[in-house]
Design brief:
- The protein is of the alpha+beta class and 359 residues long.
- It is 49% helix and 9% strand.
- It is built from 15 helices and eight strands.
- The strands form two sheets. Strands 1-2-3-6-4-5 form a six-stranded mixed sheet. A two-stranded antiparallel sheet has the order 7-8.
- The chain is elongated and about 95 Å long.
Amino acid sequence: MALYLASSTTVPVPAAATAVATVQSPAAAMVRQRSGGSSKPVLTTMVPIDSLLPADSPRTTGEDDGHIQVLAELDAPLPPIIVHRSTMRVIDGMHRLRAAQVSGAECIEVRFFEGTEDNAFVLAVKLNVANGLPLSQSDRTAAAVRILGSHPQWSDRRIAAATGLVASTIASMRKRSTGGIEQLNARVGRDGRARPLNSAEGRRRASQVIADRPHASLREIADAAGVAPATAKDVRDRLLQGRDPVPSRLREAEAQQEPAPAEAPAARSGADRPDARPAAGTAAAGTALPNMRKDPSLRTEAGRTLLRLLSAHSIGEEEKWRRLVDSVPRHRADSVARAARACAEQWVRFAKELELRGT
């Protein structure tokens, strides 16, 4: 979220107001302090007061008359106010604007903000939390609720930093929401990077990449699966140890995120129930595998990988199929079915390409 300033000698005001001149403010040092200490000169414009609209302020009780009077009596120049360019609505500086009106001024020094109205409100909260007359606890809480609604993808820490609250408070507010706040699978942190709330899917992608490319580097696995290199290493280590690539705590968190179906599906009749017995082709594959393992031409790196994958997918016996089906919890049935179909589609494509080579 950046502040873009007018840089020409004349800047049109988007209202029924005359053009205004760009100046370098004597209070530029104060503005730089409020915006984070940038050494870059801050350009501002003198704008007619009657062209400005009141702030969409996080202050639920409005301006403080006593503070306005104090500002009006100061001899020192005040920092420019910040205005949303597209709406000409004040973002930060309503007390300074009222003080200028009390003093009889017709124009006020302005720094423009380019961005959405939602981002303008976030900026107003951040500036009011950090400077000037502080926001009350109730103001900051109300602002956090609003930002949760407009920026649901932001992390709890990022919203906490903007509102002056703690991350645990934001997390509690998010949990208490009843549909008004969108629940997402990823959050954007203060560094602008999106991170999944549950990395289980990323770990599964990494395990698939490792199965497909067992000699890939950690960086290659991480890039292909969209996870951090440290996560890729942990997944590889767990696979080498014969463990599930997804730790139990992540599986439990994933299960909590997916609501159980409201109603259990009706039992199927024998006519429409899919045949649980393995197809003849599956049984044939099971008998063909021992012969393929003896074939010297398949004793290459790629051949060994292929045989391992075929062995893992060749279940064969009816009892094994039934145990696997029964081991899947009801709330996971759909997602496991989708994953099984995706694997099946990949093998069908693989088989078709081999068949084309044989023709």
